[in-house]
Amino acid sequence: MGALDANKVIQEGQQWRIVTSMWLHAGVLHIFTNMLSLLGDGIRLEQDFGFARIGLLYTLSGLGGSLLSSLFLRKNISVGASGALFGLLGAMLSELLTNWTLYANKLATSTMLILMILVGLMVGILPHVDNFAHIGGFITGFFLGFIILVHPHSNRINQTIAPPGYYTKSKYKSYQHIFLVLSVIALSVLFTMGFVFLFRKVNGNDYCSWCHYLSCVPTPLWSCDPLCNSIQLGNQLNLTCLDNGKSRSYTLPAGLLGRKRLKGGKEF
Asked: Which residues span the membrane (predicted)?
């Protein structure tokens, strides 16, 4: 019903899942934690830059996260706003850089922001967490921040009251213009490549053998590829998950027989 399933997106042409998945959640706890993050990061940005710009930033970051996830995460199904939320973090970092001279306490601000980003990415290496959505959203938000979250460094003087021969300086610094141009180019290239690869059914893991570790690092404490055995007898389906030994039974329409191995996951 709208979750991000790479096989359905690529093989069945359901590209709309790239957009809808960011508005869905895997439960009350999932949506609660995401909304806490949104309140913590989004309120200040919306107060400073307005609803329209932050709404655009949020949506495009979620799209970028879903796009990267579709290219690399082929086994799991994911939902959630984590990609969009990481886009806000990426935009906060680029906003800090491009408006650096306007910040009074630069060290404290940058340290806190970097810690938040690192903690979020570290959580992403746990199983069942779509860290590719985090990374894609962060990269998208980082470049968008240079484009739409730029503060002027000085106010223009009205030419009608300026003395003769006086020339007003640009209210934006030259490095802000450079960041903006480079970011527009980078986003255009990345999104174009991403959609081309998606429609050509490219599997990113075929070209990057180690990239799967960005989303989950296997340890003795957990498996990155959890499996559940399913035994179906008549209309009774019994699932046993191998990673924790838990079992559950479901009643299905009669007449379905077989033995399967199921894989799955969700994003938090």
From this structure: 22-39, 51-73, 79-100, 107-126, 132-150, 178-199
Catalytic member of 25, 30, 134, 212: 134
Catalytic-labelled residue, pool 21, 82, 183, 215 = 82
CB 87 within 8 A of CB 140: yes
209 is catalytic: no
Beta bridge partners, 261, equal 229
Q: Does the annotation mark 134 as catalytic?
A: yes
Nearest to 64 by CA among 149, 151, 130: 130
The model scores a pTM over 0.85: no
pLDDT tens-place values along the chain, 268 residues long:
688 888 888 888 888 999 999 999 888 998 999 999 999 889 989 999 999 999 999 999 999 999 999 999 887 888 999 999 999 999 999 999 998 888 888 899 899 999 999 999 999 888 888 999 999 999 999 999 999 998 876 544 444 455 555 545 557 888 999 999 999 999 999 999 999 999 999 999 999 989 989 988 888 888 786 566 667 676 777 766 655 566 777 776 654 444 444 444 444 4
